[in-house]
Amino acid sequence: MKQVVNIDELRDKIDSIDHQLLKLLNERMELVKTIGHIKKTTNASIYRPEREKAIIDRLTSDSKGMLDKGAIEAIFLEIFAVSRNIELPEKVAYLGPEGSFTHQAAEARFGAMGEYISLKTIQSVFEAVNTERVRFGIIPIENNQQGMVSDTINVLCEYDINIVAEVPMPIQFSFASKNENIKTIKKVYSKDIAFKQCGKFVDEYFDKSVELIPVESTSKASKLASAEENSAAICSHIAAKMYHLPILFQNIEDSPDNYTRFLIISKNFNNVSSGNDKTTILVKLSNDNEPGSLASFLQSFHENSINLTKIESYPAKEGKGFKYWFLVEFEGHKDDEKVKVIMQDPNITVKWLGSYPKFC
Ligand SMILES: O=C(O)C(=O)C[C@]1(C(=O)O)C=C[C@@H](O)C=C1
């Protein structure tokens, strides 16, 4: 005979599971607290991205239920964030304003309980980390549709900081307005790059009579649209929520594969190898007047079976000439023997920026 399932009975079971979860989480936090004490006495780093990644990977391969990697990541990254907060609350500066995609990326890694500081420019995030006013900073480095964030590249070589981790995040835009009828909208606020990334939506819904107004951030766009009749914003869902702006359309970006990669930076930070890492270095060729000097540097990646994932050149800003630094990223950790071979190449000057668990 088919058993009738009663919601109250199911809820009783859920309550009992939640009780057990809480008990186990409290037990976990006791252990975490002890680790925190040990770390404080040895001056060791509280944040250990490679350990967090190892836990998520292990749980993902052990998971027998319906939770996939994304769900396990969402739950456990929040648990780790609470753990770190118990061990030692650490300040995180991000490229603001509040509600920006960088803020969203910061919360994804440092959790809802983190102590966040919104700063106006990428340079001021680097400055806050460099002077150790904050322990971590988070900034965007590249978008997979629009390319590199030049402000980040420009300051990466100016400061003595390290890359601690990378955070890939889907960039999804919402169209938000207090006017339910889209035909009454006369102005749309957003950031220039967001207009570009939502070009198809804009072309489809608006003719030339609608003013597209670029502003500094999508949060500001949402703030302006919340205060003005017949206006709308293209912004993140967090920004729309912050200014109580109803979302009329979600995911209006041209490409569903629109991702931005953010970097977490810190001062004097050295990750141990996770077994699946990425390294970022800045390289200057000492013999860059000689034909083949760049080719021979790149050849050593092939010879050492190292997967080179990025090479970008940018001006060294030395005198009147045209000299370049290269931002080079590849798979591996700086302590790997074959990576040491690359970094000890006598024909290059290297600045190591960081080796960190590969997330994208
Ligand atoms: O294993 C550690 O080093 C811890 O501090 C514990 C813990 C965790 O919650 O599991 C917390 C923070 C670290 O980033 C990694 C792991």
What does this molecule look like?
The protein has helices at residues 7-42, 49-62, 69-87, 101-110, 122-130, 150-156, 192-197, 199-205, 218-227, 237-242, 293-303, 337-343; strands at 91-95, 115-119, 136-143, 147-148, 162-170, 174-177, 187-190, 211-214, 231-235, 247-249, 259-266, 277-285, 308-315, 324-331, 348-357. It has 360 residues and is α/β, with parallel strands linked by helices. Among the domains are: 86-170 and 258-266, D-Maltodextrin-Binding Protein, domain 2 (3-Layer(aba) Sandwich), CATH 3.40.190.10; 174-249, D-Maltodextrin-Binding Protein, domain 2 (3-Layer(aba) Sandwich), CATH 3.40.190; 277-357, ACT domain (Alpha-Beta Plaits, 2-Layer Sandwich), CATH 3.30.70. The strands form 3 sheets. Strands 1, 2, 3, 4, 5 and 11 form a 6-stranded mixed β-sheet that branches. A 5-stranded mixed β-sheet has the order 8-7-9-6-10. The relative contact order is 0.12. The mean pLDDT is 93. Prephenic acid is lined by residues 32, 35, 47-48, 51-52, 55, 80, 83-84, 87. Prephenic acid binds next to α1, α2 and α3. Its EC number is 4.2.1.51, 5.4.99.5. One of its GO terms (molecular function) is prephenate dehydratase activity. It is found in: Cytoplasm.
